[in-house]
């Protein structure tokens, strides 16, 4: 009996698969995983995906209702309709308080310390004893890290803050900065405006 060497044996086995184009692994994979799904299977899969997305959506909605139930004062009924009604009433009441306060400030001639309901920025050059300073006033959403972002952007430009005032009401912040060292031209003011806009407009709050 003639013994065949190992290399010759394996080469013939490999050649057998190559000659007849047999690939057991690939054929099994194609048969079980790559076969086209029937219409019924596709509908079942789509229904499962839709059901899962709806479940996640209901969880998010319920979590927001839970948060409202915790923060709304004097809430008697806990059903969703009552929670929404009380939320609307509270928002309207707060907006009326803000409008009355702003009107009172305008009537007295003093500057309003309540943050504006929209993001906005104003710059003005100071005169008299404060000549050489630029007063920057802006309102934006309050968020963690707001002061650090503001300091980082201001350090990247010209000028330095010599005085700052901040008021936070209802999740919004109003800041007044007095900046020195911007120079006599408009280049420094333009740089200051760009830096503050990055903090106010380009980085909205994260809920």
Descriptors for this entry?
16% strand; nucleus; transcription; Alpha-Beta Plaits; 2 domains; DNA binding; 207 residues
Question: Any overview of this molecule?
Answer:
The chain is flat. 10% of the residues are buried. The chain contains six helices and four strands; from the N terminus they run ααααββαββα. Strands 1-2-4-3 form a four-stranded antiparallel β-sheet, covered by helices on one side. The protein is 54% helix and 16% strand. Strand 3 (160-169) and strand 4 (172-180) form a beta hairpin. The chain has helices spanning 6-20, 24-33, 39-71, 80-108, 146-156, 187-200, and strands at residues 120-125, 133-141, 160-169, 172-180. The longest helix has 33 residues, at 39-71. The chain has two domains: 42-107; 120-200, ACT domain (Alpha-Beta Plaits), CATH 3.30.70.260. It is of the alpha+beta class and 207 residues long. InterPro entries: AIG1-like (IPR045847), bHLH_dom (IPR011598), HLH_DNA-bd_sf (IPR036638). It is found in: Nucleus. Keywords: DNA-binding, Nucleus, Transcription, Transcription regulation. This is Putative transcription factor bHLH family. Its main location: nucleus.
